[in-house]
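Researcher: Please predict.
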Amino acid sequence: QVQLVESGGGLVQAGGSLRLSCVASGRAFSTYSMGWFRQAPGKEREFVAALRWTDSNTYYADSVKGRFTISRDNAKNTVYLRMNTLKPEDTAVYYCAASKRPLSEWNYWGQGTYDYWGQGTQVTVSS
């Protein structure tokens, strides 16, 4: 069992930056692939970024590629999402997720790939 707690959300002006953190409790954190998803009001939850535990390969949604960076610190049981050049359309609740499944080109974006979810942290980008 893994419990995930996100933090670092808040209100930021367009063009600004934020770093989200997700702390995991439980064993063997380093053997979980980690992902970030987001859900804007009135929209479905969507994939943002993922990091495969086997080789640290990363995946990004096209909408955030070049602006967001996912990383992890296994010693701290923490995964991060660095968000730069934020836009109003990045406004959403951001969720951290963990997966024991091997990530591949075929499944990294799917919510069903991930076994554990955090409660989310709100990010609001003002124009």
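Model: The chain has a mean pLDDT of 96.
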